[in-house]
Amino acid sequence: MRHRITLLPLILSLAACRQDMHNQPRYKPLAGTGFFGDGRSARPSPEGTVARGELHIDKARYTGKVDGNDVTAFPFPITRADVSRGQQRFNIYCSPCHSRLGDGNGMIVRRGFRQAANYNTDKLRNAPVGHFFDVITNGFGAMPSYASRIPPDDRWRIVAYIRVLQFSQNAKLEDAPPAERQELEAMPVTPSPAPSPTPQKEVSR
Amino acid sequence: MAQIFHRSANSLANITIAAVILGIGGLLWASYRIDQGSFITEVGIARQQPVPFSHKHHVTDDGIDCRYCHTSVEVSPFAGLPPTETCMSCHSQIWTNAEMLEPVRASYRTGQSIEWTRVYDLPDFVYFNHSIHINKGVGCSTCHGRVDLMPLTYKANTLYMQWCVECHRNPAKYVRPREEVFNMTYQAPGNQMELGRRLVAEYKVQSLTDCVTCHR
User: Fold this and answer.
1) Interface membership of B162 toward A (CB under 8 Å)
2) With an 8 Å Cβ cutoff, are A40 and B113 in contact?
3) Is the ipTM, as predicted for this complex, more than 0.85?
4) Per the count of CB atoms within 10 A, which of A35, A118, B23, B80 is most buried?
5) The whole model's pTM is what?
């Protein structure tokens, strides 16, 4: 019996092991650490190194610029799937401020953010695609950079969708394919929406 | 020879047996209830955060998509919590004087990350992966509840093994069309089983119940 009693501490110490397995001494994503001065376990890459998949040689594709000028053509062919993807990404990252129509009156602007740009101005209709890429990558005025959240190819897809918005917001009935034109003509005429309460100011900088 | 036990001992014995069985049963039941209750599982208990961040305001009132902040949820195991820069993409301009946002501004000034209190935390011996669930049509609200209605985030499910496995045995009960994954107001239709079976075939959803799926 005495021998069995000596087992008791052993058994109790087993219970302590459980916590070790629950919280193992390894870093989970975003976990803090006392080891590095800045407290981050995710280390920034050392200067002069290139991570896998980050070797961006094609300047046009990854900066939207060639010799300091905005490129005027998409660096890869845009398919319907690319435009749909662009629409989805636009609605996630841009519509809070620019609204789903791209008129610059998104919800955050209505809550007091600086008036965002309306894409349906001559200035932006005539802007080269590289300019939009550059705005997403580096930000523009009060608008922050989205480079850390939107990978380069998705930025191009968003630009493609902005072109769609610019087209659709000015489209005439004749621009619709015949089948859809019939459908549109059958629809009751709704009065055109009242002009937005905060008219787009000229975005000049 | 005189009787040792009084006659009533018969019923006493019976009562004792019944009481012991009921007592043990009751104890088991009580401990089960405690184990499943929110004291242990923390389900339904809102967490205090360094900044009283409200999903209700940001998601429901302002219409911001989950992915604006939880950027990596579709492509990686980890959903990701937004860095201070993400908060500042809006709060550089709005609510700039709000006292409760001071920790955010301080973090932006000093580069020190905000330390959020974890709401969901699996033991480290369990492997979990967001991207596969999202891509096979499991909605955020199936696991996290109506986050869009939470002023402070709380746990909506236990994350116990039986909870994971219950779905893994028969995913058809829960899967929804992929485009509805981020829709917080999605309601399972009346013919969920029918729809579920069709989606399971379409998305090639497997029933993964091997231990090594989650313990690797």
Assistant:
1) no
2) yes
3) no
4) A118
5) 0.88
